[in-house]
Specification:
Length: 497
């Protein structure tokens, strides 16, 4: 009997997906889902903005945007890159340490977010905002604190590559927020309740997230200040780099307003509204693969090199297509976003399209450096790019207005991307990327852009033709990573079944 008990089979824990061949395909599918979900969320945001501005009018609409911008800026400054750090550490830690890390990350995120909100409210009081804006800053800040805590917990799902669930949660937040806005607008609510609409939306998503991750890791916040101190000491350079990147493009707006006319600032602002929306896309793509980066950086540099190469190729192809759409469709995009009075902003948008492409190209190198714990290098190159941007915008914008500011941003992005690529290659020569994807993607971009030479063609038709030409040549010249093509074929077969 004892022998029977001794020989009884024991439960074997399932393998971690990050250590299996399924990790890559899961990251690819998840990245596509996250971008699609983000696009749907943007459409809902446009709907809510249309309702808000028509309901509030010009004055209160401006106050609403001011309060929300102030809250987001304060949140960005105190974010400290904790979400990225959490994903990386959860991907490499084991056992009880993972639970301790999660609880302290949540506690630290709540504390830092609360400090940011207090700072935002203090700023609102200091500059003399009316009472409704001060109270509104506090209410919007409470919604941000809940959202920040939920975003930290989601790191558990990111490491497990359960990206469809993350996409669903993000979309749920948008639906809940827009639903709250619709109800409040129909009820004739004023500015204050509308600023508080983020609170119920954030709470709904937080409850759903906790229910999903329950049993995997503890999610009650911990406030162990000594552990916080050690964690912050380790990530402080990365936190500073994150803060710099959060204010990067906004600095161009502020400087342009100081050295050029209000008209030129308006043109740049219209273009920036488009670019700001699209800046999230490379991060969505790379976030899906980041747990693989982090695990490979710990265990297998060859795997890290392979993953980074494939993501670099995918970023070049995706960034090239988005830049092509902005170049070809710039007039109609600006007309939709800002109206016919902003027509000169189309040229600004085309310059910033090039900067956005460089951002796509550089994103894999930034995530590789984070995976390799090269926080100080990230800080240095972000500071150098920001300094170059400040100097060049000050010089070029004074002479060339919005076009000069856009050109300065392009140069700064090039400096950041080239520096990141060089540092990655210096850290490990095996991580040096191949740039063969660039000449393979370039013909599609050149021929797609040639549609601009056809007179009288509608912008929507031109964008469709450019997309077909670009996509066909990218596939024919093997610019598209094979893994993406395989997943695309599998998805196509699934739709036909």
């Amino acid at each position: 009997m004892a022998d029977d008990q001794h020989d009884a089979p024991t439960a074997v824990a399932p393998p971690d997906i990050l250590d299996t061949r399924q990790a890559g395909p899961a990251a690819i599918r998840g990245g596509v889902l996250r971008v699609a979900g983000y696009g749907a969320g943007v459409l809902l945001s446009v709907l809510s903005a249309a309702l808000l501005f028509r309901h509030l009018g010009v004055d209160d609409g401006g106050r609403y945007v001011t309060v929300m911008s102030l809250t987001l800026i304060a949140g960005g400054v105190v974010d400290f890159g904790l979400t990225g750090i959490g994903v990386r550490e959860l991907a490499v830690l084991e056992g009880a340490e993972r639970g301790l890390l999660m609880r302290n990350l949540i506690g630290l995120r709540i504390a830092l977010s609360s400090a940011g909100v207090v700072g935002a409210v203090a700023f609102a009081l200091l500059v003399g905002y009316p009472e409704v804006m001060v109270v509104g800053t506090l209410l919007a800040g409470l919604g941000y604190i809940v959202t920040a805590a939920q975003g930290t917990i989601v790191a558990v799902l990111t490491v497990e590559l359960r990206l469809a669930l993350i996409t669903a949660l993000e979309f749920l937040r948008q639906v809940a927020f827009v639903g709250a806005i619709v109800v409040l607008v129909l009820a004739g609510a004023g500015l204050l309740p509308l600023l508080a609409a983020t609170i119920p939306a954030a709470l709904i998503v937080l409850v759903c997230t906790v229910a999903i991750v329950r049993g995997r890791l503890p999610v009650w916040p911990a406030f162990a200040r000594r552990r916080w101190a050690r964690l912050l000491h380790d990530i402080l350079p990365f936190a500073a780099a994150t803060a710099l990147s959060a204010v990067y493009f906004r600095v161009s707006m502020v400087l342009l307003s100081l050295v050029s006319s209000a008209q030129q600032t308006g043109y740049f602002g219209a273009s920036y509204r488009v670019i700001e929306t699209l800046l999230a896309v490379p991060n969505l793509i790379l976030t899906a693969a980041f747990p693989i980066f982090a695990r490979a950086a710990r265990d297998d540099r060859a795997r890290l090199a392979y993953a980074m190469e494939r993501l670099f190729e995918a970023s070049i192809v995706a960034g090239g297509w988005i830049a092509l759409m902005l170049v070809v469709g710039a007039p109609v995009i600006i007309d939709v976003v800002a109206g016919p009075d902003f027509a000169p902003a189309a040229d600004v948008l085309r310059i910033q399209a090039a900067a956005l492409f460089v951002t796509f190209a550089g994103a894999p190198f930034g995530y590789a450096l984070l995976s390799l714990r090269r926080h100080r290098e990230l800080l240095v190159i972000n500071a150098a790019a920001l300094a170059a941007n400040v100097v060049l915008v000050s010089l070029l914008a004074a002479a060339e207005g919005a076009d000069g500011a856009a050109g300065a941003t392009l140069f700064a992005e090039l400096l950041l991307t080239v520096s990141a690529a060089a540092i990655v290659a210096r850290v490990d020569s095996g991580l040096r990327p191949s740039f063969l994807v660039l000449p393979r993607a370039a013909p599609g971009f050149a021929l797609g852009s040639a549609v601009l030479a056809v007179p009288g063609i509608p912008s929507a038709v031109a964008m469709l033709i450019a997309t077909i030409v670009y996509g066909a040549l990218a596939v024919a010249l093997r610019a598209v990573p094979q893994e993406l093509l395989v997943e695309g074929r599998e998805a196509g077969r699934a739709l036909w079944r």
